[in-house]
Amino acid sequence: MCGFAGLARHEPRGVAAGTLDRMAAALRHRGPDGCGRYAGPRVGLAHVRLSIIDVVGGAQPLGNEDGSVLIVYNGEVYNYLELREELAAAGHRFRTRSDTEVLVHAYEQWGTAMLGRLNGQFAFALYDRRTESVFLARDRFGVRPLFYSVVRGDLVFASEAKALFASGEVEPAPDPVGLDQVFTFWAARPPRTVFRGVRSLEPGGFAIWRDGQLRCGRYYELEYPEARDEPAGALSALGDLLGTGVALRLRSDVPVGGYLSGGLDSSITCSLAARESPYALRTFSVTFDDPRLDEREFQLLVARQLRSQHFIQAIKPGDVAAVFPDVVWHAESPLVRTAPAPMYLLARLTREHDIKVVLTGEGSDELFLGYDLFKETALRLFCLRQPQSRSRPRLFERLYPYLDPAARRGDFWRRFFLDAGTTDDPLFSHLPRFSLTSRIKDFYAGDLRATLSGADPLEELRASLPSRFAAWSPLNRAAYLEMVTLLSPYLLAAQGDRMSLAHGVESRYPFLDHRLFEFAARLPTSSKLRGLREKAILRRWARDQVPAEVQQRPKQPYRAPDIPAFFSPEPVEYVREILNEANLARSGMFEPRAVAGLMRRCQAGVATGFRENQALVAIVSAELWHRQFITDAAQVRPGRLPVPDVALADGVAAPA
Amino acid sequence: MDESAILTRTRSYVLDTFLYMRPGFTLGDHDRLLQRGVIDSMGVMELIGFLRSEFDVVVADEDITEQNLGTLADIARYVAGKRGNGTPARG
User: Fold this and answer.
1) CB A407 to CB B44 under 8 A?
2) Which listed residue, A90, A240, A250, B26, has the most CB atoms within 10 A of its CB?
3) What ipTM score was computed for the predicted complex, to two decimals?
4) A608 interaction partners in chain B (CB closer than 8 Å)
5) How far apart are CA A163 and CA A156, in angstroms?
6) What would the pLDDT profile of A488-528 be if each residue is shown by its tens digit?
């Protein structure tokens, strides 16, 4: 796993090595093991490397035999051995054992159609000197990031936005519409970001830069061709896909560890890994003092069964607040939950124990309808079919079992779900969540509100839905919305890639093997959500794989303390400082009097509901984000680069 | 304390607790608190705590209905009824 950056000029006036080095330095945390660059007359490429496959031979930028094709690449293509064999049979000669070189030859052989053949999590930039074009691509589900900006006719691109700003060619400024999306969906929706003019390449997307023009396209679309009945042999097909999905993701020249949450999904990935791995498996978990958040009992149960070497990151009071500014720096976005912070600490622990690759269970809840949101959707539909029924709405009491039981009953609880929207709204499933998250906007400053007066994030989302969306079943529509609004732009980014690579740890996702996604999308939804039992087929398959307590355990969402992380009861010093009136007025996002009211309630210990918890995290993170990226933009943290392993240059001598 | 005083005190509490961040918001006595986005299920729990500490009224589970707690006027009527100085609560 790595980071990369680059520039493509619309005129061949050269790319300075110093510019590339600054960009690479901003990404140093992603690739502490090495670095390299190519500085040419039209294109420059920079790379920082985390060595995982072909530790010796895989330095980048890497070219083909005659150097006419150069690549910088972040990620893994798990089926590279099979592709290499196919390409070798077609006459390609390989100099290294790396998957990077496979991509170069795959491009020579198949052009941009190569993308459909890759099974992996990747982002890359490939420079074809024969056509003076740059080819950018990103994996199907958006595991690995790729940001870009077109400035004065030049293309600037990088694994993280901070490298764009480090180039000196892209000015950091807020995008109010992107911010408004964060405060609706939890994250900006690609291609939009929270930075004006900075775009995120869409998952399953590619872009080609040529003659000063950028053309974007897609090579992969999410489809839900749901069958009426579960096919015979579905269980064994599921087992095969999980088995090969894990086995492919164990391909590495360094040991692979596992994150263990104590839930079904990571227990499955760790169990399969323990069986397949040539090394004694090391597993890593977070624990919390608050028993409502803590899952150690189940984590230890699985670790004992697997006989793994188990390491625990205990999250103590104060830990989340202590790292939160760094979390925001790496996430590059305001957040509405602190949940990325424990993941940041977990990655640090993992790296300290010499593991730089981990398997994790993300994706399963989206594929197999694990979240309460899917049950909520099914129940809302069930109730709205018989609005007069008095017994049906009582089923809502069975949702969100981790919340205070007193708050989970009565008219108010039921009406929240039943009045959230009509069944003919394409966003039906997500309207309760979107409307709850949007309460953050109650704190907006007047100017921001005025700037956003014409913006309607829900309407934009409706307009972006594919035409086939309407033909899918309501639960598959919900699953699609979950994939595009939450999984890729938030879970895999702010909570995934950015947290693990802050410490040079690569996370791998067996459930996000596209073959498994396509298998799950073909299943009838009743195979996944059976009554109110989530992930039904996965539980059936896991019966002999994981401890019964875990196999039968209801889904427990991963959460971290929000307001209590920052108040005890006095606020931590930096919260008091960034939420003062002068600072809030300067950044202009939130109304100082409203924030003062929230601070009072937090200090008094009475702000306990969702609304105020998410508002506090949103406001603190947005102000930290603004300070780090906008106000103090000139002081972007300098990284240090060692001597490059690869330093290629040709053509015009660029100014230093 | 009569129903009107209860209403005034409850209005002040709701504005301070649930609407401090929306100073321009006008809340009528008969506006539905849930539908207008003033209060949600978690907020209702907080409101119930307030009714207990302020008016010494314990809200039974079966009383947590929109009829009793749906608007400021409903709350005032319900509390007054429970305190024996108004119309009885509707279950």
Assistant:
1) yes
2) A250
3) 0.85
4) 42, 46
5) 9
6) 999 999 999 999 999 999 999 999 999 999 999 999 999 99
